[in-house]
Request: fold
Amino acid sequence: MMASEEHTLLTREVSVGGSARPSPARPSTGPRRHRRWLVPLLVVVLLAQMAAAMVTTAMQQTPTIDEPVYVATAADYLRGHRLRYNPEHPPLGKLLVAAGVAVADPRYDPSYTGSQGAVGRHLLYESGNDPWRLMLGARLPVIALTLLFGLVAFAFAREVAGTAGGLVALALYAFSPDVIAHGSLATLDVPAAGFVLASVWLVWRARRRPGPYLPLAGAALGAAAATKMSALPAVPLLMALAAVSVSAAGRRGKLLPGLAGLAAGRRRQVLPALVGAAVVALVALAVVWAAYLAVDPRLRFAPAEPVPAVHGLRGRLVDLLPVPPAYRAGMRVQFGLEDYPWQGYLFGHLYTGSLWYYLPAALLVKTPLGLLALGAAGAVAVVAVRRLRPAAPYLLLPPVVLLAVAMTGARDFGTRYALFVPVFAAVAAACVLAPRRRWAGLLTGALVLFTAVSSLRTFPYYLPYANEAFGGPAHTHRLLHDSNVDWGQDLGRLADRLHRRYPGERVWLVYKGAGVPSSYGIHAADPRTVAPERVHGLLVVSDSAVAKAHGRLAELIASSRPVGDVGHSISLYRR
Reply:
């Protein structure tokens, strides 16, 4: 029933004389009156549970491997106003982290010299700061941004598939273990993926109003490129999508007067489309420059560590980019990292180099089965249902293109390199409701519930999550390593376990992470530095070290008895 009808219904009142006359209209007091509050309430509930999960995780986890570098760089931005550390990642994400670092107000010595890893340890453990308080402050801005991107996912899906679809997308996003895990850290993966999502949504909206939304899309795209360089492949793609949106707006007669004049007499409206693409690119470039200028208006770049030289075609392309010198230096560092022979671990197999299918395989392990099913079904629906087809390139091309590029990378370290896949899959899943069949709604609801239960069961150990088909988080370390399982996040939990269950015992520790065990009350020796027969007591090994174990460590593990684990990321053995 239309809203106007709800508020103008008249009742018939019989008078004493038997004639009927209209009575004054009364507002409806039935369920329709409260229905308008249901959607905002559900949105708040979904985001509130996500916020609770992320804040709890942030409070319980010690620094992961990358976080001290980002936090120290953020502190250097605040106190030194210089571009010195971590050039391989642009500054915007670290400027967001700096907002939380400023609130924590740590002691920081700008005159300290050392590598970016050393300055991170110095800030957290050698400067008199409370690492728990500092890390929580640094993580809170990323948590807030992750929640805002949840609203973007909801808005995008609602515009494509309706309000119910928006709620489905938000639920899948809010219960995604990978998004929760990395959204609760002071890292750059969720901000980069979220800014890409926001830019695609704004380009989609430009189909109706290109004037205001194309510059906004360019700003979001620039924010992504100013956060992680892995977002750069999205720039030409978003330019192409902007051209598509301008063409669609031209067919509807929604172009601005200037663009409409350009389009006059042109069947395909090529010129307005090119102008729209250029607007997105230029605004994105302006945001990248603004991020560097916000750190140092003079753009001084004095790297703490050498920047490798890049020759050949890659070097010439880097030199041609109209970006700040520090950005080009960061690209050279990234190319240098790509040339290094890293080790990978997949399904129990340790290898050197990279596997092209690593990321798809890892995503199959670490994405909830409900999200996998609904994302795949949504991708089919957006192509098969005629009224949804205009959204297909916006929902499908960005994750496909970015994943294809990421699959060529040399670092098989985790699904964090492809977080845009579950994010876009959540939005695409909304399209499953397009057929408007009751069975589709019931099945979608069941799969969303299954995803929620799977996510809640892994609380608060989101980093080592694996779906039920692969045995759950307790078995992830047998399949994957590094940030998929063990990123150094459980040092604090290990300290609690040793204090409660193993007080006074001799502890031998092989820890992979950026934390300093002694700062958490862990006093242990490295078992690899003594003869195996002298190693008695409790052997504690990070699961990434277990995956790569060889030589003496492999012998020690093989001759020890497993007695438990901490956070599904650190294994305990008795000798």
Remarks:
- The first strand starts at residue 12 and ends at 14.
- The two ends are 73 Å apart (CA to CA).
